[in-house]
Amino acid sequence: MNQFHSIRRSVRNSPEKQFFLLSAFWFILIVLLGFGNSFYFRTSPKPLDINLLLHGSLFTIWILFYLTQNILIASRNINLHMLLGKIGVALILLVFISSYYTILYKMSLGNKPFLEAASNLFQIGLGVGAVMISIVYRNRPYFHKRFMFAALVFLTSAGIQRACANLGFAPDSSLVTWLYFAPLIALFLFDLALFKKFTFLSLGLLLFAFLLYYFRVYRIFDTPFGHSVMDLLTKLFIW
Amino acid sequence: MGIKIKRMKSTKLSLICFTLLFLTTTAHSQVSDSISQVISSKVENALDDYYKGNPETYGMLFSNNAVYYDFGEAVIGKQNIINRLRGYPINDTKHEVLFSPVDKISEDTYVVNYIIKEETGFIVESTEVWTLTNGDIEIVYARLPHPMLFEQQGGPAISVRTFVLSVIGFGLFLFLLFVIISNAYKYKSKNQ
User: In 3-state terms, what secondary structure has residue A173?
Assistant: First the structure.
């Protein structure tokens, strides 16, 4: 109970903690909306493949891990946050391997369109890359938090398309675009309000994501070079 | 006598011609009706299985060289289409199929359009091209059913419950974000 009051006091006095705690619930909502009917509240009598079960479980742990780390920061449990951070490195590597395996495996079976697989691989790669940068900046909270936040945006992008489809919107509808950029726009506005000036990092992350999205950079996989990279990845992950 | 025979012959001939014409038109409409029934029953049976978590059953309706468009990508060949459909996460869902009249576009080719209404209120529209080959009728072209945002009457395609919950959820997030941003704006750090 005391712990709860301590978190409440700490969060009340820090808009940054409020923002990042809220972001954790946002990502949970997107994942639940996107994968609720195919994973969490599945009613299909067909059991899920073991690789999908593993991938879904690891990803769920990762999202809950993000929430836990935010709560630990809010409750000023820095030592535990840092200790769990070490486990987080192993966890994100497992998420990376299971995600790449699942995407490439589904594609090799013909269950997934090539470009959709390319887009998923690209976003997962970006997400894991952002987590790594965030770990490098672990002693600089401002950078650490924002790169980890961006990582979650990239990692949950597949959930956004599915969430929109589950809400009755086409996969190319503008809602997909808005939901993808909403957290980064919110981060930019939040930093603007907090620091009363444009901040390089939040603006940079928003522009970076926008340029990648606008130019559909993942289509680089649809070139002869991209196909050879995809073949190599398939050989690496699917024996 | 000769004239009588000629009149009889021409009357009989007309009668035969009319009978033939009648039989031809009747037979034609009967073929169309039976084809419509065959197609609709094949689609309904396949979709029943599809919504029991076996989406590949729908793939069995395709011909060996059929083309299926999935998010703009052409999946060619029955086996590849079945493989693609296997990737769809389909839950056990109650549904209703509403067929439009089947259109015959050539001697053995038909265009079929239907709307699937799922129990959640989700609505999709599907168009397929069917061909009669060696006494069997198969799909030669189809595309991923397209979700319809609004019914013809103007009602929402998603269920009211999902819509209300989503609006409340997203509204709550927007409200909290607004509160947090206004807190951030008022916030003065120790360094300032």
Answer: coil
Largest CA distance in chain B: 126
Rounded-to-integer distance, Cα A178 and Cα A209, Å: 12
Closest approach of A171 to chain B, Cα-based (Å): 8
Residues sharing a CB contact under 8 Å with residue A79, sequence separation 6 or more, in sequence order = none
**% of residues, chain A, pLDDT over 70:** 97
Would the pLDDT of B121 be above 80? no
For residue range B37-68, what is the model confidence (pLDDT) as tens digits? Answer: 999 999 999 999 988 888 889 999 999 999 99
Q: Of residues A34 and A173, which shows the higher confidence score?
A: A34
Contacts A111 to B, Cβ<8 Å: 83-84, 86-87
- pLDDT recorded at residue B167: 84
All residues of chain B having their beta carbon less than 8 Å from the beta carbon of residue A193 are 181-182, 184-185
Domain with A15 in it = 2-237
The answer to whether B191 faces chain A, any CB pair under 8 Å, is no
Total number of domains in chain A: 1
Compare CB distances from B84 to A19, A110, A115 and report the shortest one's residue. Answer: A110
**In whole angstroms, what is the distance from residue A87 CA to residue A69 CA?**
11
pLDDT in tens, A149-185: 999 999 999 999 888 877 777 667 788 899 999 999 9
Closest chain B residue by Cα to residue A197:
B185
Instruction: Give B30-97 as a DSSP string.
Output: HHHHHHHHHHHHHHHHHHHHHTTT-THHHHTTEEEEEEEEETTEEEESHHHHHHHHHTS------EEE
For residue A70, give the nearest of A18, A130, A143, A1 by alpha carbon.
A18
Please state the length of chain A.
239
* Chain A interface residues (partner B, CB cutoff 8 A): 15-16, 18-19, 22, 25-26, 29, 33, 37-38, 42-46, 106, 109-116, 165-171, 186, 189-190, 193-194, 196
Across the interface, whether the CB atoms of A171 and B84 are under 8 A apart is answered no
